[in-house]
Amino acid sequence: MAHRAPNPNPAGSPSRRWPMNSNHHHGPLQLGEAAWREIDLSAIASNYRAIRMAIGSTTKFIACLKQDAYGCGAEQVAALLCAADVDAFGVVSIADALAVRKAAPRKPILMYPGIGPNAVELVRKLDLTITISGEEDLRSWLSTGIPLKIFVKVDLGFWRAGVAPSGLRHLIDLCASQANIVVDGLYAHLSEFGQAGASAPEQVTRLLPLLKELEATGHRPATIMVSSSESLLRHPEFDMDAVDPGALLFGLTGAHADRRGLIVRPALSAIKARIVALKASDDSMGAPPDLPGYRAAMRLAVLGIGWGQGMPRYPRSKTAVLIRGRRAAIVPPVHLEHLRVDVSDIPEAKLGDEAILLGASGAERITLQDLADAWDTDETGVACGLRENLRRIHLGE
């Protein structure tokens, strides 16, 4: 069961649940951490159930855990979803494949484009399903001589990896002619260009006649997949045989339209840092810099987090953190390991207090969207932009 760590700041943020499934089994107090992020595993479990209920039991759920499960920890998330009986996983890097395989010894793992035949021994050892995006790609893998399980990817207008629709039939036929190739699936990712590109229905229309041709020749793969997070929300009619949501699974929905009425919440629930220095300025320090946020006789707190943990070097003006339930403005610039905030109006602030960059303190809250706006990115950009040296604390269900 989760257990509570002592709260050094009873007047500040609410009490926390310390990890039942952390990669270090300690809270930041015990570890002496100056900054950390909190990952709510119960949010991921709840989001998974909501998506599973929406797509039904006959559509496969391939959980996309790329970028270390969107910053949430691929091994911990894979263990959670494996226990929930997810059908398969999708990853990009070998590091993520190793983490997922450790947590899910028997689940299929689809490798998105990103590795080549030089990784063939790991592909064999980890029993990975690889993506093939064209004839040259296929022949390079055939040169390894080992049996391969593959998904063929087709580019319907994303202008990224995948064979062009005009070459799909030939590529599938070529795969079918190889004794050591098993084609488990065919997939596409629909473009996110908005009005600058073809709509999702237009892209899928390019695929449907090709599927009929493959069906007629007996070469239609068993699994057809085109919907990931955004298209899953906008176009329930495109669920097909499988879906591979990533951002949606972690509650990173932003302003995406939702025809399904799904209720999800962010897995990244908090980013926190401690006050590591605290002082009142005086004339002996010289005149305050002629920069926004500086003034004479101000009280400054220094937080143990900076752009070295993934913060932007120049967040938007009027960006604040929460200390003891009140807002404290960030005083730029952000440094590699430190961040200044103005606590002139929070006289009770003390050395060691928590500062909330994301989350709640008292009646105040900074949401993930608030932080994305302040950091000039989107919700996924915040979650995936945090560095590995910002420790994860996994909160139990």
UniProtKB/TrEMBL annotation:
Gene: alr
Cofactor: pyridoxal 5'-phosphate
Top-level class of the enzyme under EC nomenclature: isomerase
GO molecular function list: alanine racemase activity; pyridoxal phosphate binding
Region (Disordered): 1-24
The organism's place on the tree of life at top rank: Bacteria
Species the sequence originates in: Labrys okinawensis
PANTHER family in the record: ALANINE RACEMASE (PTHR30511), ALANINE RACEMASE, CATABOLIC-RELATED (PTHR30511:SF0)
GO CC annotations on file: cytosol
Protein name: alanine racemase
